[in-house]
Amino acid sequence: MATAEITPAPVREAPSPGSADVTVTDPALVRRAVKAAALGNAMEWFDFGVYSYIAVTLGKVFFPSGSPTVQLLSTFGAFAAAFLVRPLGGLVFGPLGDRVGRQKILALTMIMMAAGTFAIGLIPSYGSIGVGAPLLLLAARLVQGFSTGGEYAGASTFIAEYAPDKRRGFLGSWLEFGTLAGYIGGAGLVTLMTALLSSDDLLSWGWRIPFLIAGPMGIVGLYLRMRLEETPAFAAEARNTGNTGNSGNTGKSGKSGKSGTERPKVPLREMVAGQWRALLLCVGLVLVFNVTDYMLLSYMPSYLTSELKYDETHGLLVVLAVMALMMVVQPFAGALTDRVGRRPVIAAGCAGFLFLSVPALLLIRQGSLLAIGLGMGALGLLLVCFTASMPSALPALFPTRVRYGSLSIGFNVSVSLFGGTTPLVVTALIGATGNLMMPAYYMMAAAVIGGFAVWRMTESAGRPLPGSAPSVAPR
């Protein structure tokens, strides 16, 4: 009868033949992994928060035009362009993460994200260099988009592979806690600057400050990620293939140093064709997650200001308050997914957006502070159903051998086609139809697609990741 071998994380030795390997997690390493992964996500969304909340000003700086709508469309066009190269980044970083390790790729994406954001703060205005300004902005956004192609899939995989099976939902929820913290940091800074600086100062130099802050943030994030060890699941997978890595201190025994192990290249066909069902589910889940996410956190500030003519500062404060509420609820919702499962929580979010998007937007359109707060708050709590579930549900769709690569491909294709383009598409739909209810209809359509994906997905709460050994917390 097979015996159970209990090994501490990160796994160092290959299990003996015939044994059932069980990983006992190290709480200190798990905390470090969660912090480093969440900080990278915060860095990514700090930039998105700044870009979204200062979009009107950026339109004036980089896209001079007599029409505010054209300026906003141009700014969101540059915003959306970054999402068009995300699948390319996923195709590069995802397979590399399955080959050389999650930790190394996450360190690289952190460097690139910080560099791209910092560069935006150095670009001269259209008035200084003409058409070169929007072209440089586009180039910086493309660097950001390429790097983020490997960020979310890698960070969620990293946490999922470190977390005990029964706490994966709770620990994974801190990844999106980092998203909200980054967004609040970026949006809060823009709100503060909007309140303290004159319009001329904000247009002249103030808009650069949030982007320049990305430099120091990137250095801190890189330091934290360089101190991480490779995940137990990846180390075990690499051992099982019989290939140790290039860390410089590996030997015949199969041991590896801190930098981890390396595996043979996995064919792209195996990541796509071999995982086609899981990829379709991933695209559907990410679609409803990101359409609603970008609608609420990226588009609504500009919707309140440009379409409803609401006071800019008050509109920003309302959205910040909603995100703060989401941060409070986030860890509890993540723990809930460990108890009742990911599927019921995600299904509740889909049903909520299907039936409550129109009432919520009608409340927002009333224009009073209370009505806007109630409408936005309702949408924010529904969004928590996704932010608390997806970081643990999505990595569980794929086996360890192709997890980073397949998740990167599915996630980024969906984000690029549906999530990142949400502000641009909805702005264009409103411009073409004059119907200010378009945001609600768009979220309802996404909820239908997401609901079908939930119906077809398998519950993963409390179970080992596919292709990985059971993972338990120490007693």
The order of strands across the largest sheet is 1-2-3
CATH 2nd-level architecture = Up-down Bundle
Count of DSSP helices? 22
Spatial gap, N to C terminus: 25 Å
**Into which percent range does the helicity of residues fall?**
over 70%
Percent of residues in beta strands? Answer: under 5%
Q: What string, H for helix and E for strand, traces the elements in order?
A: EEHHHHHHHHHHHHHHHHHHHHHHE
The CATH topology label is Growth Hormone, Chain: A
- Which structural class is indicated by helix and strand composition? mainly alpha
The CATH top-level class label: Mainly Alpha
Number of strands: 3
Shape: globular
Radius of gyration: 22 Å
Q: How confident overall, as mean pLDDT?
A: 84
Largest β-sheet summary: 3 strands, parallel
Quaternary structure: single chain
Low-confidence stretches: 1-19, 243-260
Structurally, how many domains make up the residues?
1
CATH H-level superfamily title: MFS general substrate transporter like domains
How would you describe what is shown here?
Helix 4 packs antiparallel against helix 20 (403-419), helix 15 runs antiparallel to helix 18 and helix 16 (312-340) packs antiparallel against helix 17. The protein has 475 residues and is mainly α. It has a three-stranded parallel β-sheet with strand order 1-2-3, with no helix packed on it. The protein has 22 helices and three strands. The radius of gyration is 22 Å and the shape is globular. It comes from Streptomyces griseoviridis. May be a proton symporter involved in the uptake of osmolytes such as proline and glycine betaine. Pfam families: Sugar_tr (PF00083). Belongs to the major facilitator superfamily. Metabolite:H+ Symporter (MHS) family (TC 2.A.1.6) family.
